Amino acid sequence: QSDLEEGIDYMFKIVMIGDSGVGKSQLLSRYARNEFNAKSKATIGVEFQTKTVVMDHKVVRAQIWDTAGQERYQAITTAYYRGAIGALLVYDITRQDTFDHVETWLEELQMHADKNVTVMLVGNKCDLGSMRVVPVEVAKEFAQKHNLFFMETSALDCTNVEQAFLGLLSQIYLTIR
Ligand code: GDP
Ligand code: MG
C-alpha cells in the first residue's frame, strides 16, 4: 500500500510467472491495453502495468508485474515476488514441458511471495486446439489438488483473458476483506 492514491481502496500486486514463451507478456498487454503483439519491449524500464477495477463498490488497483525474460535463465529476483498477493501461473497447452514445470513455479512462488498468495493457473494458446497436448481435465485436476483456480485462455483471440485476471482479483478480494 505504498502507492496510496486518492480513490483507491486496495492495491494488489500480481506477478506473471511461467516458462518463457507461454504468452505471459501477451496476456498482460491484452488485458491492460487490449493489444496483441505490441512492441512491449519498447516499454523498457516499465516493470508492471496497472489496471483499476471496481468490485463490491471498492476501487481495486492491480499492479501486474511481468518479467523481462529473466525466466529463461532462472534469474527472477526475490524483489519480483516481494509483496505479491496473487499470481497468474501460465503454461502453453501445446507444450508439455511448460505444464510439467508448473509445480516448480509454485514452489518458487510459495517460497518468495506472501504465504497466502492466490494463484490462477492459466493454460494459454487455447486458440491452437489442434496442437493441444495438455488435456483440460489433467490441468483441472492438478489445479484442484493444489488449490489453484484454473482457466484456459487465448491472448490471440481474447478468450477468457478478462475472466482470468478478474477471477484472480475477485478471489484475492475475498481472501483479504
Ligand atoms: P512470454 O515469454 O511468456 O512473455 O511469452 P510472449 O507473450 O512473449 O509470447 C510468446 C509467443 O507466443 C509469441 O510469439 C506470441 O505471439 C505467442 N502467443 C502468446 N499468446 C498466444 C496465444 O494466446 N495464442 C497464440 N497462438 N500465440 C500466442
Ligand atoms: Mg514475456
From TrEMBL:
Q: Which GO terms describe its cellular component?
A: endomembrane system
Q: Which GO terms describe its molecular function?
A: GTP binding; GTPase activity
Q: Where in the cell is it found?
A: Endomembrane system
Claim: Glycoprotein is one of the keywords in the record:
no
The membrane topology noted for this protein in its Swiss-Prot or TrEMBL record is: Lipid-anchor
**Which UniProt keywords are listed?**
GTP-binding, Lipoprotein, Membrane, Nucleotide-binding, Prenylation
Coiled coil feature spans: none
Q: Which family does it belong to?
A: Belongs to the small GTPase superfamily. Rab family.
Q: What is this protein called?
A: Uncharacterized protein
Which source organism does the UniProt entry give? Acacia crassicarpa (northern wattle)
Upper taxonomic lineage: Eukaryota, Viridiplantae, Streptophyta, Embryophyta, Tracheophyta
